[in-house]
């Protein structure tokens, strides 16, 4: 994923959410609507989340150090995980608390034109932000469905912004429904019910984000397309005759570690093997440019070892075939 595409979507969402948060809070002050208060906190939480994503992207650009020899690419995953926690605690739990209080102690909405006008403005602003996120995502998702894109994307920013914007739009519609029913019936309980629905929605989105970013933090392999490209690039049929086994790991969204055991001809000299490894590394980087850390271990292919199958007790990088 292009880092610039993610940054553009984040900045668009941040600008929209700051303007919307201010408008919603003013509407709450004039109307007393709990849906508007919950939505203003939701927009503030989203603004903080976009700030966290920008901070994570900045920190991930630091150079590798002796203490962190593989760099700081995973900072982006850490801050995306923090986003899910903020969305769950600040956004979702606060909205559920406000909804409960409003249902328990309902009161009519005053100055109805404030919340209705602000909600319509917010829907328009969020739609522009969501459109930007969709446009930037379409540049990188290829033939993947939206569900597959959210689940398989190695860069967390676009999926996070997509889900946040989708949740914001649905939440605004829920808030508009709650306010509208409260005005039509004269019963403020509907405003509280709308607020509760917003809280449940935010918690569900936070759980999805947490699950996906947790997987990235644990370490995910390269995508199937990249794995196939690497496998095709390793073997030249001359010195490198076979790929015995390989493991890949994303050190960050745009940095891939490749560790493989390759079969070389048994009569090659050490110099020839070293040259073959260097050539294989060049082919891998040409095929998959994000493969920046490559470790290739030469070996002599054994039919009997291959027939015995992989050793389940072998650790990554061990001697199992």
Please give a structural write-up:
Helices cover 67% and strands 10% of the residues. It has ten helices and three strands. The chain has helices spanning 3-31, 34-59, 75-104, 113-141, 146-152, 157-185, 189-218, 224-234, 270-287, 303-308, and strands at 240-252, 255-264, 291-299. Strand 1 and strand 2 (255-264) form a beta hairpin. Helix 2 (34-59) packs antiparallel against helix 3 and helix 4 (113-141) packs antiparallel against helix 6. The longest helix has 30 residues, at 75-104. It is elongated, with a radius of gyration of 26 Å.
Features:
mainly alpha; 3-stranded mixed sheet; 3 strands; 67% helix; 10% strand; elongated; disordered C terminus
Write a compact overview of the structure shown.
Helices cover 67% and strands 10% of the residues. It is built from 10 helices and 3 strands, in the order H-H-H-H-H-H-H-H-E-E-H-E-H.
Total of helices: 10
By DSSP, the count of extended strands is 3
Shape: elongated
Unreliable sequence segments: 317-321
Average pLDDT, all residues: 85
Helix percent reads 55-70%
Distance between the termini: 33 Å
> What profile does the largest beta sheet have?
3 strands, mixed
Strand order of the largest sheet: 1-2-3
Strand content: 5-15%
The class by helix and strand makeup works out as mainly alpha
Over all CA atoms, what is the radius of gyration? 26 Å
Q: What multimeric state do the chains show?
A: single chain
Taken in chain order, the helices and strands follow as: HHHHHHHHEEHEH
